[in-house]
Write a structure and sequence with these properties.
The chain is an all-alpha fold. It has 17 helices and no strands.
């Protein structure tokens, strides 16, 4: 019976896995955040796209994000097999081989860039291509295993999607789109370092130089607090540039105050409560980013509606 099971497993891998395995390669939870911020960037940008073109653009950005995830899993299969939160991914679990994941990621990358260029403009397509390259090569292949600043620098890849969405509408970038980038860029270190604080053993076993493993818990908590406070200030920049008004300001202030409050609690927490507080901050950080970009879209949408009926 064991021999039959082994043969079936080998055949399953040889056939390239199941649909669910390919979906898992796309990192759908990460993709959902990328799609949402990109769609928000597209919505708040001046100008408009035909609804069908906008839907195609969002699909292309989603596929590009999925390509990045597949290429990340292809390269990181060795360390994914070591870490508890990643060992059940398709490659380390034996559902897909690395070559299949590589080809899948490359095909999706080419498809997403080409179709975005044809549907919108080639500036946005080039920006998407650069985003995929930055995540797969600059972050995954270089920074992730080389420096505790991996998340700080590599976080730019996750901050580009709203700029890509903006560029799909306008064909360029602007101060407002840079502000959207900055919010996600500053959000990324406290988000991932909070995760790293309660997953230190995983990162240590995999040999990844995350900040807590290199600089220690106290230094990491200091930096989380510093980034959180700067993020809270930066979240108000859309008001300064005139992109948004008070519809955005109220939830942005409330969300940022809560984020900073949780960062302070983590900073002050005794050693036996540190992981619990880190998990709380990490969990809320996901809600924070969704809330900020939802408030952005709501503010701009309401302003446009009021202008239309006036």
């Amino acid at each position: 019976m064991a021999l039959v099971d082994d043969n079936l497993t080998a055949a399953h891998v040889a056939m390239g896995g199941e649909v669910g395995d390919f979906v898992a390669l796309l990192k759908p939870r990460v993709m959902s955040l990328v799609v949402f911020t990109a769609a928000a960037g597209m919505f708040v940008a001046p100008g408009s796209l035909h609804p069908l073109v906008a839907a195609i653009a969002i699909l292309c950005i989603a596929v590009g994000a999925g390509a990045s995830g597949a290429l990340n899993m292809w390269y990181d299969a060795d360390i994914d097999a070591i870490m508890s939160r990643t060992r059940n991914r398709p490659i380390p679990a034996g559902h897909l081989d690395r070559q299949t994941a590589l080809m899948f990621g490359l095909v999706l990358a080419v498809f997403s860039v080409a179709f975005l260029g044809l549907a919108t403009n080639w500036f946005a397509a080039g920006f998407l291509a650069f985003t995929i390259f930055f995540y797969a090569v600059i972050y995954t292949m270089w920074l992730k295993r080389a420096t505790p600043q991996n998340i700080v620098i590599g976080g730019a890849a996750g901050a580009f999607p709203p700029m890509v969405g903006w560029a799909a509408v306008t064909g360029n970038i602007s101060l407002d789109s840079i502000v959207l980038f900055l919010i996600i860029f500053l959000w990324t270190p406290p988000h991932f370092w909070a995760l790293a604080l309660y997953k230190q053993s995983d990162y240590a076993a995999a040999g990844i130089p995350m900040m807590p493993n290199v600089a220690g818990e106290r230094s990491t908590r200091n930096q989380i607090l510093a980034y959180s406070l700067v993020l809270s200030v930066s979240a108000l920049l859309p008001l300064v540039t005139g992109l948004t008004g008070w519809v955005y300001a109220v939830p942005a202030i409330a969300l940022s105050a809560t984020f900073s409050g949780l960062a302070v609690q983590l900073w002050r927490a005794p050693a036996d409560r540190m992981k619990h507080k880190a998990r709380e901050l990490f969990t809320f950080s996901l809600l924070y980013l969704f809330g900020i970009f939802l408030a952005l879209a709501a503010d701009v949408g309401i302003a446009r509606w009021l202008e239309m009926i006036s």
